Amino acid sequence: MTNSDTAEALIPALTEQVDRRKILLQAAFDVIASSGFEGLRTRAVAERAGVNIATLHYYFPTKQSLVEGLAQFLSGIFATLHAPSRPKTGRVALDHLRQEFTDAQFYHERHPELGVVLQELALRANRDAAVRHAMNGLTASWRSWIETIVQTGIAEGTFRQDLNPRQTVPMLMAVLAGDSHVGIEELENIQRGVEEWLLAPEVKKELKGVKP
Amino acid sequence: MTNSDTAEALIPALTEQVDRRKILLQAAFDVIASSGFEGLRTRAVAERAGVNIATLHYYFPTKQSLVEGLAQFLSGIFATLHAPSRPKTGRVALDHLRQEFTDAQFYHERHPELGVVLQELALRANRDAAVRHAMNGLTASWRSWIETIVQTGIAEGTFRQDLNPRQTVPMLMAVLAGDSHVGIEELENIQRGVEEWLLAPEVKKELKGVKP
Amino acid sequence: MTNSDTAEALIPALTEQVDRRKILLQAAFDVIASSGFEGLRTRAVAERAGVNIATLHYYFPTKQSLVEGLAQFLSGIFATLHAPSRPKTGRVALDHLRQEFTDAQFYHERHPELGVVLQELALRANRDAAVRHAMNGLTASWRSWIETIVQTGIAEGTFRQDLNPRQTVPMLMAVLAGDSHVGIEELENIQRGVEEWLLAPEVKKELKGVKP
Amino acid sequence: MTNSDTAEALIPALTEQVDRRKILLQAAFDVIASSGFEGLRTRAVAERAGVNIATLHYYFPTKQSLVEGLAQFLSGIFATLHAPSRPKTGRVALDHLRQEFTDAQFYHERHPELGVVLQELALRANRDAAVRHAMNGLTASWRSWIETIVQTGIAEGTFRQDLNPRQTVPMLMAVLAGDSHVGIEELENIQRGVEEWLLAPEVKKELKGVKP
DNA sequence: GATGAATGAGCATTCATTCAT
DNA sequence: AATGAATGAATGCTCATTCAT
Predict the structure, then answer these.
(1) Which band of pLDDT confidence, cut at 50, 70 and 90, is reported for residue D177?
(2) Is residue D71 part of a domain?
(3) N or C terminus: which one in chain C shows less Cβ crowding within 10 Å?
(4) Which residues of A touch B140 (CB under 8 A)?
(5) Which residue intervals of chain C are DSSP H helices?
(6) Given this model, what pLDDT does residue B122 score?
(7) Residue D162 has pLDDT above 80, yes or no
């Protein structure tokens, strides 16, 4: 009984400590989303997090360490945040591919700041090794996932047999991430074009009439 | 007499003024290329341009006006700077399409700062109406050029007849601009994939053996 | 029984408290020796002492109280730390005088930080009554000891009979403490000059051939 | 006429520029005199000088540069500021020696801050190469002047012929600078003791009845 | 046109101190 | 007794901008 009392007292304390860091990172995320790195001020982050400047520096001794924390924070978000899963077609690769487009749309519609902050970090990665490291990790795991989809698609006969993965993978990545230039409203058109291009003729026929 | 005097006096002055402006804009461009908007300092720009800060403020009363000038400066660069033209195949759309890829590669290899600054401005456009306006102009004219290519390609029988321009145009734009995520070294692969996808079957046969 | 319990509990606790205080004061001494009052940071002191800052503030509620503690700590050091005693000549005043020079050299060679911290405190005494009080005590007891030496020397016939103590005492103090301007390497020369000046002619003869 | 106008316009401007630096250095001097290096705040210096913080940093980019400027400023003061010259005795060395004591007293009575700031700088010289350099220059020129006095005194027969300059010079320096330990009120006593010690017996007789 | 000097507002960071545990 | 977390008030320094010349 006293045991559980102690436990109850300890856990919230621990939880809150973890939270403070996350709250600060989320605040930094928000500030960057609305003002860019250009407008990132430690004071604004602290204020948004509801803590004193000195408290921010207690958790992140320098602004740089905050930025590095943010890069990892963002990686964590992309690893865990996905659109609700869509109805399956039974074709694994197609389902995963469509999920990628759904995710892209989901990020854009529900969490438009994600793309902005991601691009800010990608740009900063050019001149900041620590950020570059974190972003490389994120890109690498995404690329390997896209590769899996393409290879699976070819193997299971969903995609055209003459597809060259070395061409297809970067095209898909560019198309999925290229929202900044084409506008999300065209993502659906792009998705149709991609499927037109990727799917094996017999799969196309098979899917005729089934809404995507 | 006084007319010609004035003219003679004004024209060099005007010319020099134009030059000073351009020198300053180029300096701003360089600073952003290496430090981002985050690191854009008027003093650094003035120093790089070899003038006093007060002089910079004579030409650009505010930092904002400098940024706006830069957006137009960049539009001008993309309008006039292209890779040396490539050997023609006689198929107009294909030639233009290939020129687009050549340009993309040329920018990346010979003027890597261009992409960085373009992305910085694209990001800033989110929160800056004037920059957004300039960037929209740039995007719009590029899009209309890509549309022309696609339509010409279909019309002249170079591209597949069942292509949907509404799908094809944004895909091409995303793919051409999506360098930040895939790396320039894959641009050639992407180009092959794109041609595989766009070209009409008979054109493919016709081009067999001709190096791209 | 409870008495002895309490006593046993208190005494070690008290001892340890005294120790912690001394460790903290020594740490403060070290920090001042290497960075001056200018660089005295409570965090640096705590870190050097191997305790938390809050612990430092438990023993010394304010930085000022730490400084005051240091002034007394230093007085204690000068009261107890001396060079190993030198061979006696039998002339009490001369022996004591020589011991003063030996001490000065000893401090300078073996504990050079002592002089630095002493001067830092002397300077701070100008604007800090509590430090002034402690330093005055230190100076007063040193002066009275020098007076004793001079008077004894005259009385016992070791020093010249026409010496005026009111002139001699401050000269000796200035000369013994004036290391900052002349460099310790000259202290031996100074000592010879002082003896030349102070000693009675017959004592000089008597000491001829005896190494100082 | 226009010439003189221009001159009148230019000279004050130039003067004022020079002054700004000096005003800032004097302000820094004042702040250190009353609060020590410990209490030296750029804001306080700027405020005392009646300028904006940014203006201080225009003239002294860093606090360190201000401190270095101060060290040179102080050297300049000691080189040019002296007590009004005293009546001569005709004995050059004695006149110069007495002038040294008069200067010491003058500094202490009329410019008591000088000694404080000098000691602050001397202490800081321990950990600051630039300050050390400046202070070494000051000490070296003072020492060479004292050497000149002692040698002249021996040569012209004013001082005892058996004086050893290697002993006498540092003793004099220690005694003249050792005010921090003995108090200025004893400086006169010290001076009498020093003359008693230095002067040749016949000179003493000769000076009997002449007030010092 | 051009510049040296000046400034208000702000910036990341630090510091002595406090407090709940 | 001891500590991790938190904070208000600085602290040295920077920045875009202005102005007299």
Answers:
(1) confident
(2) no
(3) N
(4) none
(5) 2-35, 42-49, 53-59, 63-80, 92-110, 112-125, 129-155, 165-177, 179-182, 187-198, 201-207
(6) 93
(7) yes
Residue A18 one-letter amino acid: V
| A102 and A132 inside one domain | yes
- From the list C79, C87, C48, C81, the residue with the least C-alpha distance to C66 is C48
C-alpha closest to that of C198 among D24, D171, B165: D171
Range of the domain at B16: 2-61
| Contact (Cβ atoms closer than 8 angstroms) between residue D168 and residue C193 | yes
Report d(CA D67, CA D31) in Å as an integer. 12
One domain for residues A40 and A111: no
Domain membership flag for residue D74: no
Report the alpha-carbon distance of residue C80 to residue C82 in Å, rounded: 6
Q: Is residue C119 less than 8 Å (CB to CB) from chain D?
A: yes
Do the chains contact at B193 and A167, CB–CB below 8 Å? yes
In the predicted model, what is the mean pLDDT of chain C?
84
Q: Is B46 helix (H, G, I), strand (E, B) or coil?
A: helix
Query: Do C148 and C203 have their domain in common?
Result: yes
Q: Running along chain B, 212 residues long, what does each successive block of 10 average in pLDDT?
A: 45 62 97 97 97 97 97 93 88 90 89 93 95 93 92 90 85 79 66 75 75 53
Which of the residues B37, B64, B197 would you substitute to probe the A interface, choosing the one with the greatest number of A C-beta atoms within 10 Å? Answer: B197
Query: Is C101 within the bounds of a domain?
Result: yes
What's the domain count of chain D?
2
DSSP H helical segments within D81-200, as ranges?
Answer: 92-110, 112-125, 129-155, 165-177, 179-182, 187-198
- Report chain B residues whose CB lies below 8 A from the CB of A173: 178, 181-182
CATH code where residue C14 lies: 1.10.10.60
Amino acid type, C118: L
Residues C13 and C47 both lie in one domain? yes
Clarify whether residues C178 and C127 are in a common domain: yes
> Rounded to the nearest 5 degrees, what angle is found at the Cα of B135, between the Cα atoms of B133 and B136?
65
Choose the final residue of a domain: A16, A32, A61: A61
Residue D157, φ and ψ in degrees, nearest 5? 80, 10
The CA–C1' separation of B58 and F13, in angstroms, is 26
CA distance C126 to C115: 17
The upper half-sphere exposure of residue D138, i.e. CA atoms within 13 Å in the direction of its Cβ, equals 23
Q: How far is CA B68 from CA A38, B25, B129, B132, C45, in A?
A: 16, 10, 10, 9, 52
Contact residues on chain C for D168, CB-CB shorter than 8 A: 193
Q: In whole angstroms, how far apart are CA C85 and each of C98, C172, C175? A: 10, 20, 21
Domain shared by C12 and C115, yes or no = no
**Same domain (yes/no): B98, B201:** yes
Predicted confidence at residue C134, as pLDDT, reads 94
**Do D123 and D22 share a domain, yes or no?**
no
SS3 for A159?
strand
How far apart CA A148 and CA A165 sit, in angstroms, is 10
Please indicate, yes or no, whether the overall pTM of this predicted structure exceeds 0.90: no
Chain C to chain D Cβ contacts (< 8 Å): 120
User: Within a domain: residue C195?
Assistant: yes
Domain with residue B118: its CATH number is: 1.10.357.10
Express each pLDDT in D31-89 by its tens digit. Answer: 999 999 999 999 999 999 999 999 999 999 999 999 999 999 999 999 999 999 888 88
Separation between Cα atoms, residue B161 and residue B150, nearest integer Å: 11
Q: How far apart are CA D94 and CA D100, in angstroms?
A: 10
